[in-house]
Write a structure and sequence with these properties.
about 500 residues; alpha+beta; 4 domains; five-stranded antiparallel sheet
């Protein structure tokens, strides 16, 4: 800062004389000079705005408020070049605005920056007027430190820019509503609905609805929901600007703790193509399931036919052959022991073959399943499993099954066979329990072992075709297969199939 000199440099606060006052320059003033008495000085000193008097290019008075925000003492300011306190970049502009105000060409306050004693920048809002001070023309300035307000506006602008950036970064359409009128919209609105954001502001949200019925119904739903909860979501059949209908996921959130002001924010995600692809995938899955069911049905029919032919045709032929061998054995002379031994061996071979034929026939399609039903077939299967594997298998069968659908009985029986096969291959169990019962109008098959336990990774493995096959077998009847396992505590497979009351007797 420069000390006062005889000829200070021109500054923004260097005020030229107003031409209208020149003819009155030598006339005595009829007004009370500023600070003629203590009252005016006291008022200026206590003012919460900056007050100064500039005369002959020097400060003649500065009130404490100016000293406070500028950081200078009164003595320092009275001895400094007034323009030196102004930021160099703003000096020309501040001087120009001050002259215009003194000439009556500007009536609003003007803003500029100053540099405090410690080098900080402060924003000042100022007005000036021409006065008489101690018999000479002077300038009375009033200023206000607006630094905090300026910084607050800047932060607000930054926040608004950040909010706008966040909104535009969201891939979904985002709108704000007040009493069903648009108050803001992000750029994604144009991609989803075809409307530019500026085209929507102030308009009614019914632009996005297909018809008045949808407008009333959907609005009623989410406004009612938002009365008691902060958010609400639903699927929304919408209409684009070009008239094309789309399907969106809509999520609405109220602004504020209550819905009193009926201000909400809504996001929309166009799921039209997603829904179409999902529907096509579901249709394809259903077709594959129907095909699988059809193939299983054909396979069971073929297995039944083969089992019947093996049992009837091959079994009967072997029985006849055994009878012939037996007849021949009785007619061979005891004097030929070698031939008798040979016929005895052939008879035992035929017996073993007949047993094998019966086993193959049962494996293909147990006759008990068709003749006596599911319960009898499961009882036979558990006994055969225990006999063949040497593994204790307890059956708890508490159901009457004469009315169970034949195809369903087959599906449940095949699941049991698959489960018992997995026990042999993977479980390392010492005991198996099979339960068949009715619960809550449903048929329940439960197979539990005390083996090493199946893991979650094994259950979820897409290559576990046996497990996948179990689920697919009961899918046509709305059934479920739940597989649970604990390490070293065994595995439990639970098959549940809902049934009509007429189909089962508990």
């Amino acid at each position: 800062m420069k000390k006062k000199t005889d000829k200070p440099a021109a500054s923004s606060l260097e005020i030229t004389e107003h031409p209208h006052h020149r003819h009155r320059e030598n006339k005595p003033s009829t007004k009370t000079p500023v600070f003629h008495d203590d009252l005016y000085k006291t008022l200026a000193d206590s003012a919460q705005v900056g007050v100064y008097i500039l005369q002959d290019k020097c400060f003649r008075y500065v009130n404490p408020h100016i000293q406070e925000y500028a950081g200078y003492t009164e003595e320092e300011m009275l001895n400094m070049d007034p323009p030196s306190i102004i930021h160099p970049a703003d000096r020309k502009m501040a001087r120009k605005n001050a002259i215009r105000m003194l000439k009556g060409q500007r009536f609003s306050p003007y803003e500029f920056r100053i540099l405090t004693k410690d080098g900080r920048v402060r924003w000042i809002l100022e007005t000036v007027k021409s006065i008489q001070y101690q018999g000479q023309r002077a300038v009375l300035g009033n200023s206000m430190n607006t630094t905090e307000q300026k910084e607050a506006r800047s932060r607000l602008e930054e926040l608004e820019a950040l909010e706008a950036s966040i909104l535009d970064a969201i891939p979904h359409a985002v709108i704000g509503l007040h009493n069903r009128l648009f108050i803001f919209a992000n750029n994604a609105v144009e991609r989803v609905f075809g409307w530019r954001p500026e085209e929507l502001i102030g308009k009614n949200v019914r632009l996005l609805y297909r018809n008045e019925a949808d407008y009333d119904e959907i609005a009623r739903l989410f406004y009612t929901a938002l009365e008691t909860q902060r958010t609400f979501s639903t699927e929304f059949p919408a209409r684009r600007k070009d008239g094309r209908e789309i399907l969106c996921t809509m999520k609405a959130s109220r602004i504020g703790e209550t819905l009193r002001e009926r201000r909400i924010v809504v996001t929309y995600e166009d799921i039209t193509e997603q829904k179409r692809a999902q529907q096509e995938l579901e249709t394809s899955r259903e077709q594959l399931r129907n095909l699988s069911l059809h193939l299983q049905s054909i396979r069971e029919e073929e297995r039944t036919r083969i089992a019947r032919e093996i049992h009837d045709e091959l079994g009967q032929s072997l029985t006849a052959l055994k009878m012939d061998i037996s007849w021949l054995g009785h007619r061979i002379s005891e004097t030929n022991p070698a031939l008798q031994k040979k016929t005895g061996y052939m008879s035992k071979l035929i017996d073993g073959t007949i047993e094998t034929v019966h086993r193959i026939s049962s494996d293909l399609r147990p006759g008990l399943l068709d003749d006596l039903g599911l319960v009898a077939a499961i009882e036979w299967q558990t006994q055969d499993f225990e006999r063949r594997c040497g593994l204790p298998c307890r059956a708890e069968l508490s159901i009457e099954d004469e009315n169970i659908d034949r195809q369903l009985a087959t599906a449940v029986f095949r699941i049991l066979q698959e489960t018992l096969t997995n026990v042999i291959r993977h479980a390392g169990a010492t005991q198996v329990t099979v339960r068949l019962f009715a619960k809550n109008a449903a048929l329940v098959l439960e197979v539990a072992d005390n083996g090493r336990g199946v893991t979650r990774a094994q259950i979820d493995d897409p290559r576990s075709f046996g497990l996948i096959g179990m689920r697919e077998r009961v899918h046509p009847w709305g059934g479920t297969v739940v597989i649970e396992g604990k390490e070293n505590q065994g595995t439990r497979v639970t098959v549940t199939v809902p049934l009509q009351e007429r189909m089962i007797k508990p």
